[in-house]
Specification:
By secondary structure, the chain is α+β, with helices and mostly antiparallel strands. Helix content is 32%, strand content 13%. It is built from 20 helices and 20 strands. Helix 9 packs across helix 17, helix 10 crosses helix 17 and helix 16 crosses helix 17. It is globular.
């Protein structure tokens, strides 16, 4: 039998519970019976009309002290306006089935605040995607989803509008009372419940992201637009701007990039708890139209949905997609891990094997750029790596009459070709060492000075050794994959010099795996799945952008993350004040690794040439042009099904181009008149550029 002490403890626990509210429908009935509007009630309780709506449709609950005031009001109304058939003195508290388990100290009001489970549920591999909301307010959810991490019950980010509503993932709406940037930062860290868990056991949690609409920016004292003669991404608020002075006065800090479209506000971490908030300002072009097509024009709830899916599948955005791509590498391969100090017995940060470490590393002279201090101070004149994507067009005089009579030029684009090249790619992790007259080893990543001018290949195909497809004329520096391909073609290679790395590893493997999964899953949500036939695949790709514009924007952002992240590995200096030979900020990152960028591009270009060669062997077809990951073929029909090689069973031939949603497989990029394409070639244009409508350069400076 329970003791008296135990019984009193149980009774005290009941007395200390938070007030219980009636069901949401009864709350609305009582307010309407009293003749009070939602707006008037919101004014009385010092909250927003949207919060009152959330309380009355069951999507959120108020928190103390507002909860106590709301219950007192409902109790008074219940006494005046009892429900039909109910006793006039019925208590409001009796209507609630159970008390809220959320701490009373929490003051975040949510549209869908999930209770933190005792054991955090595992996040689904691919979060369910709801149809895009057609109104400004997100559709009501049927039930709350359990939080993947109880520390961040409201997801990784929120989009703040001018009315104080902060729209999160899965339809969550938070009530943000902040009227200044400082108040916003403190609310985000203390009350919002925003953030995301680390992607690696040795990594750091993702800082919460607050996206500001134009109205929210103005409300917080920021200009609606940043104006100036510089590029939009280079603009910053001046140091004497009131908001910047306000941030500094409150003892918060800004990163070196200042208060721009992507502002990072932080204080020194307290123990393991980081104090950092990322802001993105929509009206300052934080979401580039090229990477996030149409997103900045969406309603706040839809923007939150797009960015939320990206955050769940890739990473919480921390800047442009290029910056996010680079940050993802570090998040998945943290530079340090905890190791025990044998002398003191304490746990201290130590090098994490397989990572790039914490210190920047200078490249070998041929791997650097002409303005790099390694080149300028040493007076290096020995040439540079030229591992870039293809930009090649077949000379018109090498076209046959039969090819010219074909009615179509069809473009095939490889799905995230550079991501496919990053798979199982062994790169150098240590500093380069110089060797003279080494024996070539295809397993060692590095840069080799080799003469490949003696290799003769079919002129109807681009040379695999140069980006413009022309035959080399003298010794040049090549990445390991390019030299290995010359050996694969049956030619002897004798390097004159080499810069090689002794410590190696598949650094990009987790980066590739996460982005590949994100890409394939997002395509599947758009109806492009692996089980489709080639004809069904082409039809699905033709309409996938119309299925769900929000998810189509996520797909574009994932692709931009791949190219931007690879390009960011060799970010060039920016700004008019830069002088040759000076170190620029990007060189302070361990991830400034032009040799890794060269390895990815070289492997992608070799993969492309291998497919071109196999296509010629199987079908006798030769490309008209190649631009980056797009190749154009003459065709008797308007579909790649008219010329791609298939076995008698109907299955695609291995080794050649194949259609499909997986990275490295092809999709239809465009169809043009063959005569039009030949005419372009006579004028010196690349038909692939006109069909693709894009640029082959991997962005280095975003």
């Amino acid at each position: 039998m329970a003791s008296e002490e135990e019984l009193f403890a149980s009774v005290d626990a009941l007395l200390n519970e938070e007030p219980r509210l009636p069901p949401p429908a009864e709350r609305a009935r009582l307010r309407e019976a009293a003749g009070i509007t939602q707006a008037r009630l919101a004014t009385a309780l010092k909250t927003t009309t949207q919060s009152v709506k959330n309380w009355e449709n069951g999507r959120s609950e108020p928190k103390s002290p507002r909860l106590d005031a709301y219950q007192r009001l409902l109790n008074g109304w219940a006494a005046k306006y009892p429900a039909p058939g109910a006793a006039p003195t019925a208590s409001v508290a009796a209507w609630a089935p159970a008390a809220s388990t959320e701490p009373a100290a929490s003051r975040v009001e949510t549209a869908d605040a999930p209770q933190a489970p005792a054991v955090a549920a595992a996040a689904p591999a691919r979060p369910a995607i709801q149809p895009a909301a057609t109104s400004r307010r997100p559709a009501m959810k049927k039930a709350a989803q359990p939080a993947a991490d109880p520390r961040f019950p409201h997801g990784p980010l929120a989009v703040l509008d001018g009315d104080g509503c902060a729209y999160g993932v899965d339809g969550i709406v938070l009530d943000c009372p902040a009227s200044t940037v400082v108040e916003l930062v403190e609310w985000t860290l203390r009350e919002s419940g925003l953030g995301a868990p680390k992607l690696n056991r040795y990594g750091k949690d993702s800082d919460p992201l607050i996206v500001l609409t134009a109205a929210a920016a103005v409300k917080l004292g920021l200009p609606e637009r940043l104006e100036g003669h510089e590029q939009r991404r280079s603009l910053r608020l001046p140091e004497d701007h009131p908001v910047v002075k306000q941030v500094v006065k409150a003892k918060w800090r800004l990163t070196q990039r200042g208060f721009g479209p992507w502002a990072r506000i932080y204080r020194k971490a307290q123990g393991r708890d980081r104090q950092c908030v990322q802001l993105a300002i929509l009206s300052w072009d934080a979401l580039d139209e090229r990477s996030w097509p149409g997103v900045s024009e969406m309603e706040p709830a839809d923007i939150a949905r797009v960015l939320g899916v990206y955050a769940q599948r890739v990473i919480t955005p921390r800047g442009s997609t290029a910056v996010s791509g680079l940050e993802l590498m570090t998040a998945l391969r943290p530079p340090t891990r905890a190791v025990r100090d044998e002398a003191s017995g304490n746990w201290v940060p130590g090098h994490n094997p397989g990572s790039l470490g914490t210190e920047p590393m200078d490249p070998a002279p041929p791997e650097a750029t002409p303005e790099h201090p390694v080149v300028v101070t040493s007076g290096w004149t020995g040439g540079f790596l030229n591992e870039e994507a293809y930009q090649w067009v077949r000379p018109v005089d090498l076209l046959t009459d039969e090819e010219c009579t074909l009615p179509f030029a069809v473009g095939l684009d490889l799905n995230t070709a550079f991501l496919a090249a990053a798979a199982r790619l062994v790169v150098g992790l240590s500093a380069p060492d110089h060797f003279v007259g080494p024996k070539f080893n295809p397993k060692i990543p590095g840069s080799w000075l080799v003469d490949l001018s003696h290799i003769e290949l079919d002129p109807r195909l681009p040379s695999p050794f140069t980006p413009d497809g022309t035959r080399p004329t003298e010794p040049a520096w090549y990445q390991t994959h390019t030299v290995a391909y010359a050996q694969e073609l049956g030619y002897n290679v004798q390097p004159l010099e080499a810069y090689l790395r002794r410590e190696t590893g598949a650094y990009l493997d987790p980066w590739h795996d996460r982005l590949k999964t994100a890409y394939v899953d997002t395509l599947a949500d758009l109806g492009v799945t692996k089980d489709l036939t080639d004809a069904e695949f082409l039809a699905a790709m033709e309409r996938h952008k119309e299925v769900d514009p929000a998810l189509a924007a996520v797909l574009a952002a994932i692709k931009a993350t791949v190219k931007g992240g690879i390009g960011k590995l060799r970010e060039r200096p920016q700004g008019k004040k830069y002088k040759e030979g000076e170190r620029w900020p990007a060189l302070q990152r361990p991830t400034w690794r032009p040799d890794i960028r060269a390895a990815v591009i070289a492997k992608a270009r070799i993969n492309m040439h291998r497919k071109l060669r196999n296509m010629a062997t199987m079908t006798g077809l030769y490309p008209l042009a190649v631009l980056s990951d797009c190749v154009v073929y003459p065709s008797p029909g308007a579909s790649p099904l008219d010329f791609l090689p298939y076995a008698a069973s109907g299955k695609p031939q291995p080794g050649a181009f194949r259609l499909g949603p997986t990275p490295g497989l092809a999709k239809l990029e465009g169809v043009q008149s063959m005569l039009w394409a030949v005419d372009l070639m006579e004028q010196g244009y690349n038909p692939a550029r006109h069909i693709k409508g894009g640029d082959a350069v991997l962005d280095e400076g975003e």
